[in-house]
Design brief:
The complex is a heterodimer of chains A (about 350) and B (about 350).
Chain A: H1 3-10, H2 14-28, E1 32-34, H3 35-45, E2 51-52, H4 57-62, E3 67-68, E4 72-76, H5 83-95, E5 106-111, H6 118-128, H7 130-133, H8 138-145, E6 146-149, H9 154-167, E7 173-179, H10 181-186, H11 192-213, E8 217-221, E9 223-225, H12 244-248, E10 255-257, H13 260-266, E11 269-276, E12 279-286, E13 293-300, E14 303-306, E15 312-313, H14 316-320
Parallel strand pairs in A: 4-8, 4-11, 5-6, 5-7, 7-8
Antiparallel strand pairs in A: 2-3, 9-10, 11-12, 12-13, 13-14, 13-15
Helix pairs in contact in A: 1-2
Chain B: H1 10-18, H2 24-28, H3 32-39, H4 43-58, H5 75-83, E1 87-88, H6 93-98, E2 103-104, E3 108-113, H7 119-129, E4 142-147, H8 154-175, H9 188-193, E5 195-199, H10 203-219, E6 223-229, H11 233-237, H12 242-263, E7 266-271, E8 273-278, E9 281-286, H13 289-293, E10 298-305, E11 308-315, E12 322-329, E13 332-334, E14 344-345
Parallel strand pairs in B: 3-7, 3-10, 4-5, 4-6, 6-7
Antiparallel strand pairs in B: 1-2, 8-9, 10-11, 11-12, 12-13, 12-14
Helix pairs in contact in B: 3-4, 7-8, 10-12
The chains are: A alpha/beta (about 350), B alpha/beta (about 350).
Chain lengths: ~350, ~350
């Protein structure tokens, strides 16, 4: 509120208003920390300095340990590429005891499109961590830690996450998976600005949830084709005659991540899964601490595994475009879509 | 000037006006005891009013009795100031060139771009580079990093700090070949120690923090850069009343400008993008609207051009519009390897 108006309301002089505002501001301001203390706290208190390992060596190295705590990580890609498979593996990883590199905690898995399969999760566990899974009762305990929610509407989902906020710490929830965010929003009938606002609320809520409880939140997103009249240029770019302008026109029909640009800004890490000439690739499209690397992968009974731990570095347009060519011919593992 | 414009509490103002003192000239020509008697206020209050009245009329040039306006500087003196202005390097010399040497202190610079283009990277790089000691051509200052989105990854700051120290050591080794190499005193952890990190979780906290910064910086005078990553986030989703939003944002911009001038530091505001329907198609534009776009002194837009990241000076009082390429490496921001593509001027 501007100071003049405050003075009107409270009927005090300028000096008093100024000092009142200053005091209140100081009290409301967030506390100051040095970056160094941030680092030290992370290293001391958090498992693997605040990362959930994906057990994909190349990816974990690039992400400085794994999926980071406290922020939103997005998995985006065309249907059937392996997003849900990836999520299921992560859920497993989080439920594992610390001795085996897990977070030893519960997982809340929000399964909007009924893609979660317990049978598949146990199969992944048996194949990738046989020493653990063959122990008596382990499978049951691990599976028991993964709580699956199937919300029937966005309102339902909103209620559930609000409930979750209060009980996260007590119930040792160490990972939240939302598969998929797009499906949740597409069920609603609102359009345009109202829809943006709804999404906006969820973005703020999820981010603060992640940060407040220091857990990783993994969200999957779908793709859509880019509209003809959409550009990714600024008005001044038309004036800067770089010959490359011509090239970009051929990108008209490629796929982009759904949910819009606001969402794209809000996620901290964006992992894109795509298929190019029959080869599936996972690439780190947005990450504050990694270069844009792409890794080829395939899906086996043990879940997703990288074909090479050495990623190829991507150039500009390759980072943000999503390919789905040559994908329809690929066998869907066990006939299940992911 | 009218008396009701004075910065007084409403009851005192009411008394003044009902006593017949509606213009400044009527107030300044009377003594404090007369004023106290007429308006039914205490002598102290009357004295305060007179002081205020004199201040206000001093800055109003149509009064005529004052030849110099309080607080004005002549352009010649300002030229000297502008030239000796310290600048913070971005570690990318092409970028520094189009910026006239680096991010200027005493100014508010807005940097915007699509997700993933490197805004946070530039923010972290600047908060490390401001600490480069004077012997190496830096400012030897500290940094305030205001994080509204949680994008500050401390591991990345450590990487960049380590690279900075290594570069300084290499430079020392090179320059002092004939002397005993001066060990660089700074260690990466020290650099992290000098970044004051604030995590802002709502727009109320953001406004409160901006108000509080004046006091904080007075107590920590070596802060030379304030980075806000990003100013947009809380204002995009939680604000329903656009008119109020515009007002709050322009006040915030003003406060930042005051801070920049008062403490001679650089303020860097990172902004997001949105799509705007102009000239018959959807185009990218920086978020927060048209009125915000007037608030910052300098504006730099980061964008993709083919394979490379580019920065474009969109708005600046003294620099020509130009673009330059840069890359983000594991060591931070650097020149792109194809800097044979010269800086493009408009």
């Amino acid at each position: 509120m501007p100071e003049f108006e405050l003075m009107e309301l409270l009927d005090v002089g300028m000096k008093e208003t100024k000092s009142a505002v200053a005091l209140i501001s100081e009290a409301t301001s967030p506390p100051c920390q040095s970056a160094r203390s941030l680092l030290e706290r992370k290293v001391e208190n958090e498992h693997l300095s605040g990362h959930l390992p994906t057990h994909l060596k190349g990816l974990d190295e690039t992400l400085c340990g794994g999926i980071p705590f406290g922020v939103l990580t997005e998995l985006v890609g065309p249907p059937g590429i392996g997003k849900s498979q990836f999520c299921m593996k992560l859920a497993l990883s989080a439920s594992f005891p610390a001795a085996y590199g897990g977070l030893d905690g519960r997982v809340v898995y929000i399964d909007v499109e009924s893609k979660f399969s317990s049978r598949r999760v146990i199969e992944m566990g048996l194949e990738s961590f046989p020493e653990v899974f063959h122990l008596k009762g382990m499978a049951q305990e691990m599976a028991g830690r993964i709580l699956v929610l199937r919300p029937t509407s966005l309102a339902n989902f909103t209620e559930s996450i609000q409930e979750l906020k209060d009980s996260i710490l007590q119930n040792q929830v160490k990972l939240l998976v939302i598969d998929s965010m797009t499906a949740l929003l597409s069920g609603e009938n609102k359009q345009g600005a109202q829809r943006q606002q709804q999404l906006g609320w969820h973005i703020s809520f999820l981010k603060s949830l992640a940060e407040f409880s220091r857990i990783p939140i993994v969200v999957t997103n779908q793709v859509r084709s880019q509209n003809r009249d959409e550009t990714s240029h600024y008005s001044f770019q038309a004036k800067l005659k770089d010959g490359l302008q011509e090239q970009t026109k051929t990108y008209d029909s490629h796929l982009v991540a759904a949910l819009g640009i606001n969402w794209a800004h809000a996620v901290t890490i964006r992992l894109v899964l795509e298929a190019k000439s029959g080869q599936r690739i996972i690439k780190v499209a947005k990450s504050p601490m990694s270069p844009p690397l792409a890794f080829p992968f395939h899906i086996t009974s043990a879940g997703i595994s990288l074909l090479s731990d050495k990623g190829t570095e991507l150039k500009g347009p390759g980072i943000n475009t999503i390919h789905a060519r040559g994908h329809i011919d690929m066998i869907n593992f066990h006939g299940e879509c992911s | 000037m009218e008396a009701w414009r004075l910065a007084l509490s409403s009851s005192i103002r009411g008394k003044l006006i009902s006593a017949g003192y509606t213009s400044l000239s009527s107030i300044s020509s009377v003594s404090s005891s007369d004023l106290a008697r007429d308006a039914n206020i205490t002598e102290d209050e009357a004295f305060e009013i007179l002081k205020l009245a004199n201040q206000s009329s001093g800055s109003n040039s149509c009064n005529g009795n004052r030849s110099l306006i309080n607080g004005a500087k002549n352009a010649w003196d300002m030229l000297h100031e502008e030239e000796s202005l310290p600048r913070i390097t971005t570690s990318c010399s092409d970028l520094d060139n189009i910026l006239g040497g680096g991010i200027s202190c005493r100014d508010v610079t807005e940097i915007g771009g699509v997700p993933g283009i490197g805004k946070t990277q530039i923010g972290i790089q600047l908060s490390v580079n401001v600490q480069i000691p004077r012997e190496f051509g830096g400012l030897g200052g500290k940094a305030i990093y205001i994080d509204t989105e949680g994008s500050f990854m401390v591991e990345r700051a450590l990487q960049i700090a380590e690279a900075c120290v290594e570069d300084m050591e290499e430079y020392t080794g090179y320059m002092h070949k004939h002397f005993k190499a001066n060990q660089v005193q700074m260690k990466p952890k020290d650099i992290l120690e000098n970044i004051f990190y604030f995590r802002v979780c709502s727009y109320t906290e953001q406004i409160a923090l901006v108000n509080h910064l004046d006091k904080f910086i007075s107590e920590n005078k070596d802060v030379k850069v304030v980075i806000v990553d990003s100013i947009t986030f809380h204002f995009r989703q939680d604000f329903d009343d656009l008119v109020q939003r515009t007002r709050v944002l322009s006040e915030m911009a003003l406060k930042f400008m005051k801070l920049a001038k008062k403490f001679s530091l650089a303020v860097v505001l990172l902004n997001q993008v949105t799509t705007k329907y102009t000239e018959g198609s959807f185009q990218l534009a920086l978020a927060l609207g048209d009125s915000w776009s007037h608030s910052c002194t300098n504006r730099v837009i980061l964008y993709w051009n083919g394979d490379e990241r580019y920065a474009y000076i969109d708005k600046s009082p003294s620099l020509p519009s130009a673009s330059a390429s840069y890359t983000v490496t594991s060591r931070g921001l650097r020149n792109s390897s194809s800097s044979s593509k010269r800086v493009k001027m408009m």
